[in-house]
Amino acid sequence: MPISDLRIAKFWVTASALLLLATGCGLTTADDAVTTPAITPMAELLPAMDPTPDLAATQPGVDASTAVPQVVEVFSTPIPLPTPSSLSCLGRRERVAQLLLPLVTQAELFGAQAFAANGELGGIGLLGEPNDEIAADLTALQLASFVPLLVASDEEGGSVQRLARLLGPIPSAAQTAQSKSPEDTRKQWVEYGSRVRALGIEVVFGPVLDVGAGPGIESR
Fold first, then answer.
1. How many angstroms separate the CA atoms of 170 and 193, rounded?
2. Most buried by CB count within 10 Å: which residue of 75, 86, 169, 189?
3. Residue 217 near residue 174, CB atoms below 8 Å
4. Helix, strand and coil percent figures for the chain, each rounded to 5
C-alpha cells in the first residue's frame, strides 16, 4: 500500500474518531432525539494493507524483488507510567519508624519480625555477642520485613567488637596505628568487612577516634 494512501486512510480514521467524540459528548435538550452513533469497524475504514510496499509504483526504476522494504511507524512508542515508591505505601507511623534504629540482641530478633512485617522497623543495631546462627536469624528477619532493613554492628576493634567471638578479635584503632602501615590497615578492614557483610550486616559503627582518656575508651 503506498505511503500516500496510508496517510489518507489515517486522516479519515482520525476525522471519524473526532466526529464520534463530538456526537457522544455534545449537549442535548429535551426535544433532541437521543440516538446511538453508528460505529464503523476499523476494517471498513482502512483498505486492505499489503505488508510489502509497492516499490514499483512509488519509486520507478527500483526492483521490488531486491529492494529492502520500507518500515513505516504508524503508532508512537508508549510512554511507561511511573511506578509508586515503597514510601507511598507507608502510613505516618511506618514512615517515622523507618527513621529509628533500635538496639536488639540476637535473642530478640525473632520478636522483631512482627514489627518488620508491618513496616514499623527501619533497621536494627546488634547488641551482645552473636553466635554462629546470626546469619540465619538476620535472613529470617529480612524475609519477614515489609521493606529491606539496615543491620548495624559495633566493630571498632579492641574492647568494642560484637563479632569478636564469631569472626576473631581485631586490634583497636590505637594498636593498629602503632603496628600497621596504612596499606596493611586497609587490607585488614577490607577482609574483615567482607566477612561481616556475608553475615547480613551492612553498617559498621567504627573504627572511631575518641579524644577522651577515660576507662573503656582510651584504646580507641
1. 12
2. 189
3. no
4. 40, 10, 50
Domains held by the chain: number: 2
Determine the Cα–Cα distance for residues 164 and 129; give it in Å rounded to an integer.
Answer: 8
Average pLDDT value for the chain: 74
Side chain identity at residue 51, one-letter code: P
Q: Mean pLDDT lowest for which of 70-84, 99-113, 127-141? A: 70-84
DSSP class per residue in 33-69: ---PPP---HHHHSPPPPSS--HHHHSTT--TTTSPP
CA distance 58 to 3: 8
The top-scoring range by mean pLDDT among 47-56, 78-87, 209-218 is 209-218
Is there a domain that residue 68 lies in? Answer: no
Helix (H) or strand (E) holding 204: strand 203-205
Residues 93 and 188 grouped into a single domain: yes
- Do 197 and 128 fall within a single domain? yes
CB of 162 closer than 8 Å to CB of 128 = yes
Specify if 123 maps to a domain. Answer: yes
Q: Which domain holds residue 154?
A: 86-205
Claim to verify: residue 27 and residue 118 sit in the same structural domain: no
* Most confidently predicted of 29-33, 34-38, 89-93, 204-208: 89-93
Decide if 119 is inside a domain: yes
**Shared domain check, 97 and 181:** yes
pTM over 0.85: no
* pLDDT for 89: 78
Q: What residue type is assigned to position 195 of the chain?
A: R
